[in-house]
Automatic annotation (TrEMBL):
Database matches in InterPro entries: DJ-1/PfpI, HTH_AraC, HTH_AraC-typ_CS, INH-QAR
Domain of life: Bacteria
Protein name in the entry: Helix-turn-helix domain-containing protein
Keyword annotations: DNA-binding, Transcription, Transcription regulation
All copies of domain HTH araC/xylS-type, residue ranges: 225-323
Length: 333
């Protein structure tokens, strides 16, 4: 399948049991066909670089088994390097040179490289991260920085998209990054529908790379849900905290507090996120002008849309549209 092959590099040594979560995320998203979202989907390959390592211990009797080898990894469009054994981090155990050589070859052949959590130590050892901004788990950021000073490490980011190199922090950040990749490959509508299918946890605020999927929404408490659903359907209208609070039969102060507790955002932050998500969808799926889109998403003027869009998404609406304008419209929900 052209352009959609995903390889996971099996690393030697025992990983932490919770690393199984990250691998499960990758397998669920990229290894499960989604014909109603996009067909063809991805082709997932679990690859062993070292002939003697056909499976990697995850701990507590669990193993990751590789059915593919070096050839399939080198030829993949995207290569995932999962978290590595703890002694590769804390004790500075050397990464096998054979693994580094294969990853370097894959990068030279044009593969998109993705490191999950401490997988960044492997790409850094290969020199692939030199001069690049990356994310990793905050607990290991200082160690990585001391060991590889040529790497620019952001220990607070959930994930960093640096074009052909993408990195994430630990655990659920792998889900954020995986959905971001789907968004890059198939567009916001497909990523949003997949996120709902996976019943993703609340979207976490923080550093956001370009093209982050703003439409992946947090799940609000049951008594707030109807109000937020109504608001999402009326984004082109003037919406105030007072109006939303009245619809929820709450005082503005209570509504503000309950929403903050429920999804980690204030009403104004939530509204802005929904308006920008609507703008993303319209930029992808219509040829409407920027003035019309700004009105439909409730941001009023084109200048206001451009200002908020660039601040949050990282590019202008025109640049964003140019990135996704060649995509076919996704199937109806």
């Amino acid at each position: 399948m052209t352009g959609r092959t995903i390889a996971i590099a099996v690393t030697p040594g025992a990983m932490h049991p919770w690393d199984l979560y990250e691998l499960g995320v990758v397998a669920s998203i990229f290894g499960t066909p989604q014909p109603d979202l996009a067909d063809p989907w991805y082709e997932l390959r679990i690859c062993s670089v070292l002939p003697e390592v056909t499976e990697s211990s995850i701990g507590h009797g669990a193993y990751l088994r590789a059915e593919y080898g070096v050839a399939e990894l080198v030829s993949a469009d995207t290569v995932f390097v999962p978290s590595v054994a703890y002694d590769c981090v804390a004790a500075d155990r050397e990464v096998p040179q054979e693994l580094l050589d294969v990853l370097i070859e894959a990068k030279h052949r044009g593969a998109r490289m993705v490191a999950l959590c401490t997988g960044a130590f492997v790409l850094a050892a290969a020199g692939i991260l030199d001069g690049r901004r990356i994310a990793t788990h905050w607990e290991h950021a200082a160690i990585l920085a001391r060991r590889y000073p040529a790497v620019e490490i952001d220990g607070t980011a959930l994930y960093v998209d640096d074009g052909d190199i993408l990195t994430s922090a630990g655990m659920t950040a792998a889900l954020d990054l995986s959905l971001h990749l789907v968004r890059r490959d198939f567009g916001a509508a497909v990523a949003n529908r997949l996120a709902r299918r996976l019943v993703v946890p609340p979207h976490r605020a923080g550093d956001q790379a370009q093209f982050v999927d703003l439409s992946v929404q947090a799940r609000a408490e049951a008594d707030l849900g109807p109000t937020l659903e109504w608001a999402a359907a009326h984004l082109d209208e003037p919406l105030t905290v007072e109006l939303l609070a009245a619809r929820a039969a709450m005082s503005p102060r209570t509504f503000h507090r309950r929403l903050r507790q429920s999804i980690g955002a204030t009403p104004k932050q939530w509204l802005l996120t929904q308006r920008l998500a609507r703008a993303q969808t319209l930029l992808e799926s219509t040829d409407f002008g920027i003035d019309r889109i700004s009105r439909l998403c409730g941001l009023g003027t084109a200048a206001n849309l451009r200002r908020h869009f660039a601040a949050v998404v990282g590019v202008t609406p025109v640049e964003y549209r140019r990135t996704f304008e060649q995509r076919e419209a996704p199937p109806a929900a």
